[in-house]
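Problem 12. The chain below contains 368 residues. Write out its predicted structure in token notation.
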Amino acid sequence: MKYYIIAGEASGDLHGSNLIKALKNKDIDGEFRVWGGDLMEAAGGQLVKHYKDLAFMGFYEVAKNIRTILANIRFCKQDIHKYQPDALILIDYPGFNLRIADWAKKQNIKVLYYISPQIWAWNSRRVHKIKRIVDKMFVILPFEKDFYKKYDVEVDFVGHPLLDVVNTKVKTNDFLIKNQLGQKPIIALLPGSRKQEITRMLEGMLSIMPNFEKKYQFVIAGAPSMPLNFYKNLIGNKAIRIVQNQTYDLLQHSKAALVTSGTATLETALFEVPQVVCYKGSTISYWIAKRLINVKYISLVNLILDQLSVTELIQGEFNKNNLQSELGKLLHPSLVQPILDDYKRLKHKLGFAGASQKTADLIVEFLS
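Solution.
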């Protein structure tokens, strides 16, 4: 069968690549044309567009780049029409993917959605559109099945694909040697994957370095789509290491982490690293989002646990004094133990491993 898969960011590229591998186990003659990244291409997908050319974050940034986005949508429709896939598989990235899904449904193309848009956080009315245009939805968060059930939408909970990634990761000292990291305990900085958010977040994260660098070393997790020079220009002459395509290795060796809100908060928790969740958007984007978002927390850790387990520093609260205070707490064993206990409960709530293969099995079964 022929599959057309669209992912618009780094996490989608990771999950898309694992889904391609799993689909190949079920459909050895499967063909894959993809919007994603290096991982999906390495897994066997014919790469059409790289996510680094698609990632626009926030309301203001989207509005500023609307011509590019609309051009990408037009091109995507033309490319799908030419390819004539047996199924269109969409991975999160709702602003783009729901538009493509609406069009594809009218072309009688099977529309499958893997990793639901976070419509439970804002604009839940989208569920009615999803019910109309999506043939099968595969969700990865335990509370999403109940959310969709309220609207009489049957979805499949497949477990979280990050469990597979984390469970297969083996900790070795090769990472420390390769990156010339000394004996000081590591504080990981995960400033995000998009240019706008990295620029905005990294300055604040680096502001507290002087208060901790005698005892700890700070290491930046570089996004795979960003060149090394981009980070070097941001850090100037500060003595700080940057590692790229090694975020999981970094987390395995970290004492604590400052993490930009997103999938990375969950990744950090699964590696059992105490964290402070950070977020700061443009003033316009934050003002709009604050009036639209209807959830109590912004981090997936707190959302899944349904409690404030890890500290969230949002917008004005994301400042040097708060960062310094909250990071200091994470470096005291007695204060951090409750977070580690919560992480164990989090893993239990996420369910079982094998999300990619279960999703692939359900996809092939549905299409057959």
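Discussion. Residues 66-83 form the longest helix (18 residues). Students who got a different answer should revisit the alignment rule from Section 12.3.
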